[in-house]
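Input.
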Amino acid sequence: MALISSKLGVKEMALICRQLATAYKAGLPILSCLELVAGKGVSGKARLMLQRMERAIRQGATLADACNSEKKILPDLFIQLVSAGEKGGRLDTLFADLAAYYEEMRRLYQSVIGSLIYPGLQLASAWFLGTFALGMIKRVSAVFHGTGSNFDIGAYLQNYVHFQIAALFLVFIFLTGVIVLIRAGLLQGPWQVVKRHLWPINGMLRKFALSRFYRGMALLIRSGLDVQQCIRRSASMTLDKALEKDLLRALPVIAHGGTLAEAFSKSRCLDKAGRELIAIGEQSGNLDDSLQKAAEYSFQEAQSAVKATAKILQVVITLLVGCVIGYFVISFYGNLYSIPSDF
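Output.
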């Protein structure tokens, strides 16, 4: 995460938010909370950031201003929610909610990475063993057919090692170029296209974005903010321009006296469960609780989508490994019996 983005990762944010939630709930002022967290197990980058925020607040800045000055390091979702929670006086609830959110995201990332380890090892093994076997087949076949000199295993191993070093160097150069382009923001356009159109990634990211929207709406409603401001701020928390534009279509309906249920009925992106929970919460007077339930529902749906995506990737990688092995078998018999392998 640190290589791809300058922002803090979910592991670091989970630790910071949990410690802030515990310290603030204990009754410590925010300055003491920041000072305490800065000295407790965070990275050097996070420690310096918290110390800068502490100095800014001592000089008269609000917590939201201090967070906004660290927008190159802090996630946008954290900054948006802290701004809303500080104005509404709900920082205790906010830090606890954010801690739970980042802890869930951390567990989700770990489960996805764990599920992809075995297919990744399969793919790596297929590459290293397959290229070794393919080269061996060609050399031995040439010797058998009298078109090559005596086979020297030592020379072959040396050439194989040089080939793998060159291949890994090219992979390293490619990944370095991708990381540089990502950090420079030059891949935002292609990434937006992928987010919108590539299945199953588009549906998975959309569910995460809706979860952030519902969570932000719940917090902002609790803080007593105007409904239109709640929608506008929560829509920006989705970090998805297309989804944000769709959600903002509700504002004219609200401005003309319509209900939230009526306003979001025109949304193409809001799921049916979310609409129903909003309507129930609006009628019962517990809109914030209903929105929180909608956030939890969307997050669970996103988790299921991530697990399904991981399984799909496992199948794709397994099929790819099978194709590679099949190619090696065909190449072996093609070279052994002088059958053209490019038929």
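The first helix runs from residue 10 to 25.
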